[in-house]
Recover the amino acids of this structure.
């Protein structure tokens, strides 16, 4: 009697086994390609809890350092002394006493300097990013100027513009301009080559390509430069007040340091840091409104 299995050809057996094996392989491949990213327990801690923990550790280390006697209290005050002076300065600001006027002068220097840096930096960035002349002839000079010690220019700005607010605004803009130039130029160069060819094929002019394609694409780079400039503009304004006089918070810090009133120096610096944080947060807020499609997880927080 014939074996029923003998009617099945070897090719059919091979094909059937191959098909089953392929099905198994596909199932195995589908199960093996599932990847789960392992995150550390530190990454799962809420941001507010992490910030409070770091702050508590910093204060504890500060208190331990002052109690150990390794550092003179004239050089490093205790956290409690600094807190008391912070309250004193805060009451002075709320009462609209002389410190409020000094703070307002510094804020004006920062705002004017940052606005001037944006105007100059954006203009130079477009020239550097859009023209070969700007990249070859202007950019090397900008890099050379940026490598110079900017503090050394403070006496020059004072000699040129006087002891009023103009010299501080100029120094603040001088420090904050270069990051904006680099960010603008890098953003213009970040445009996709296919998008460039598409605009060229559609007959777009150079201005239309810049305004409708290159600038929107380069906004993340531009705002990166603005964030760096927002940090540097405060340093420029305060440096100008240190070396060129004035009536801002920098002058109050200089006077307090000459009197060895370190708690006052610490408290004034902390209030200035709040102004700098406010400016930085404003830039981040503007970025989130206009560049909502781009996630920035490194600088400025997660969007």
């Amino acid at each position: 009697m014939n074996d029923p299995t003998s009617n099945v050809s070897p090719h059919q057996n091979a094909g059937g086994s191959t098909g089953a094996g392929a099905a198994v392989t596909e199932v195995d491949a589908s199960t093996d390609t599932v990847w789960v990213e392992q995150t550390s327990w530190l990454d799962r801690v809420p941001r507010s809890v992490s910030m409070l923990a770091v702050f508590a550790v910093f204060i504890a280390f500060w208190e331990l350092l002052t109690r150990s006697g390794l550092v003179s209290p004239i050089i490093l005050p205790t956290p409690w002394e600094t807190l008391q002076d912070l309250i004193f300065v805060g009451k002075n600001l709320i009462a609209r006493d002389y410190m409020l006027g000094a703070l307002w002068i510094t804020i004006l220097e920062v705002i004017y300097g940052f606005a001037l840096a944006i105007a100059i930096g954006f203009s130079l960035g477009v020239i550097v990013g859009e023209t070969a002349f700007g990249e070859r002839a202007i950019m090397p000079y900008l890099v050379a100027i940026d490598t110079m010690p900017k503090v050394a220019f403070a006496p020059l700005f004072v000699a040129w513009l006087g002891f009023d607010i103009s010299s501080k605004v100029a120094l603040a803009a001088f420090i904050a301009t270069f990051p904006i130039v680099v960010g603008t130029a890098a953003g213009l160069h970040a445009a996709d080559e296919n998008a460039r060819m598409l605009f060229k094929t559609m007959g777009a002019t150079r201005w239309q390509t810049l305004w409708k394609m290159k600038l929107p694409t380069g906004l993340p780079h531009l705002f990166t430069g603005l964030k760096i400039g927002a940090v540097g503009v405060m340093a420029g304004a305060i440096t100008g007040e240190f070396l060129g006089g004035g009536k801002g918070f920098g002058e109050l810090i200089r006077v307090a340091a000459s009197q060895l009133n370190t708690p006052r120096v610490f408290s004034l610096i902390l209030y200035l840091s709040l102004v700098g944080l406010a400016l930085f947060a404003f830039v981040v807020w503007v970025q989130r409104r206009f560049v909502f499609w781009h996630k920035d997880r490194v600088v400025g927080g997660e969007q």
User: Anything to note?
Assistant: The chain is about 75% helix and 0% strand. The CA atoms of residues 157 and 167 lie 5 Å apart.
